[in-house]
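Same chain as my last thread, 291 residues:
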Amino acid sequence: PPPVPASTRPALSGRPQASTHPTALPVAPRPAAALPAADEPGGRLATVTRLVPAPSSTALAPYPMSGPEELVIRLLTLGLPDSLLGPDFTSDAAARGVYAALTRSLSERLPAAPPAPTEPGDVLMLVGPGAETFAAARSLASSLRLEPEAVLWAASGALAGLAPEASRITSLETALARRRTSAATGAVTVVAVDAPLRTSGGPWMEHMLSVWSPSAVWAVMDATRKPEDLVPWLDGLPRLDAVVVEDTDSTADPAAVLNHVPVPVAMVDGTRATAHRWASLLCERLEEMEA
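reply #2:
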């Protein structure tokens, strides 16, 4: 085709002109996939390179979002139940900031985190599957200024070896002996009980409840486990007063547990699960989304 005169070529705004001389175009613009192969072996093909700007995160969203709408959607993505966000949450966040708005909304709607028993002779029983429960009980004991080595571990088989022999409970007779000893000390006793997900502890759990008559029973939950596994397990426990949530750093929706538990959350990652703690955790995740 004949060269296109410069006077008839549309001006390209925002891009400097590479040359003031007309340039002959060998083919009409078309998608690269539609370009025919060169007919002549010695033919020369021109390579056209253009820079395509990377799409922004907003452009990748499934639909346009305003500021307040985007904030709510991100919180829901983090697992926060919609019922915990009041009707005035977005306006409150715009006026006072996200952290303050979250703290206020959660304080009004989230069940209060129960404190750990601290009276002399009290027994706090933590129940859950395997080693993670024993580790959580030792961590909790430290936060109560108790010796982690004093945590009693009620388990059988190889799992019993996680605790020193003096702290193991492997039979009903051992449980009764440990109960008499702890009652004489007049201190808070932390008892961790192995309660597998498939059985919710079964008769073993019921025996431990009968022997210890605990002041509180808290279930230890790994935040990365599927609700399909956790909900039946929680329902099967013969007693449940609160839950302890662990390992929220390893899940994309750390607040999803609030959708599935029928009791308050007492601790989250080793800290009392107050409205301030949940608001702080969620704001940290929101900042990571912005990064």
